[in-house]
Design a protein that fits this description.
Layout lengths: L1 H51 L4 H5 L8 E3 L1 E4 L2 E10 L2 E9 L4 E5 L9 E4 L6 E2 L1 E3 L5 H8 L2 H32 L5 H10 L9 H11 L6 H4 L7 H11 L4 H9 L4 H13 L2
Antiparallel strand pairs: 1-8, 2-3, 3-4, 3-7, 4-5, 5-6
Helix pairs in contact: 4-8
Length: about 280
């Protein structure tokens, strides 16, 4: 009897463990699926831009064209290119060349057998679906490189992105370190004032900022884009301050005992731990 009871308990424990593993697997699958959907939503505009870059102006302006780069199939009839469309016949759908358009009826020929008798179809030709063939225009990229100095623009963009990223991050780290480790009068009030600038719409300060840069003579230069990043950002300060508060102060005390000052502690202790 004890043996049967032990087997029953073992079986129950195994069943519970299997149920827990199944719930974890389902939860992981759901989380992964949601993450993939969000990733697809973010990557979709990039993919659409890439596909569009492989199209001609005619392909982009054609609202009936498929998503992938394609051109309507044409057939040369008596020295003139005519469209090839899908026409519903008694024998089924067939690809025919539209040689004569009409309001109530149109005339078609079979591109595969042009010597055959012309086919008259009753109905509006505008309702017929044209046939598209894949047509990728790789020449757009060399043309873009020839039209503009792309490498120079790319270099300016990288220079601006790298300089402003380093400047805004380092300046925000300094301010965040001061708010998280030092005590000074009106500290909390100043931090609240700093954080409150997050809710200030940039449109409110657009005109005065432009007037200030005009007074400095910076209009038409890189300075208005780069210099403000050296004076921190409220959002970055908030994030870094909250992280600095999680770093144990005992580490800084140990560094202070070894003779490190505030600047050395910031550069050698705080920043390396904040790299992630």
């Amino acid at each position: 009897m004890d043996s049967s009871l032990g087997k029953a308990r073992t079986l129950k424990t195994t069943t519970e463990q299997s149920s827990i593993k199944m719930r974890k697997l389902v939860m992981q699958t759901l989380i992964t699926s949601v993450a993939l959907v969000i990733l697809f939503m973010y990557l979709m505009p990039l993919a659409y831009s890439f596909v569009t870059s492989l199209k001609t102006k005619q392909q982009v302006s054609d609202i009936n064209a498929p998503l992938l780069p394609s051109l309507p199939e044409l057939y040369n009839y008596e020295g003139k290119d005519v469209s090839v469309v899908m026409v519903p016949l008694e024998t089924g759908m067939k690809a025919l060349a539209l040689v004569k358009k009409g309001r109530s009826s149109s005339v078609f020929i079979d591109p595969k057998d042009p010597a055959a008798t012309e086919i008259t179809w009753e109905g509006s030709w505008r309702t017929l679906k044209p046939i598209y063939t894949r047509s990728i225009t790789w020449a757009n990229y060399p043309k873009a490189f020839r039209t503009i100095n792309f490498l120079r623009m790319l270099g300016y963009t990288l220079m601006y992105a790298i300089v402003t990223t380093l400047a805004s991050t380092f300046s925000a780290a300094i301010v965040a370190y001061g708010f998280s480790r030092f005590r000074f009068p009106y500290q909390n009030l100043l931090f609240v004032i700093l954080i409150s600038t997050i809710i200030l719409p940039p449109q409110v300060t657009l005109v005065p900022t432009y007037a200030f840069f005009f007074w400095l003579g910076w209009i038409g230069t890189w300075l208005p884009l780069i210099v403000p990043t050296f004076f921190s950002n409220a959002y970055n300060v908030f994030l870094l301050r909250q992280y600095f508060l999680t770093i144990p102060t005992e580490i800084e005390d140990a560094a202070r005992i070894d003779g490190a000052g505030p600047i050395q502690t910031f550069l050698r202790i705080i920043l390396p731990q904040s790299i992630p």
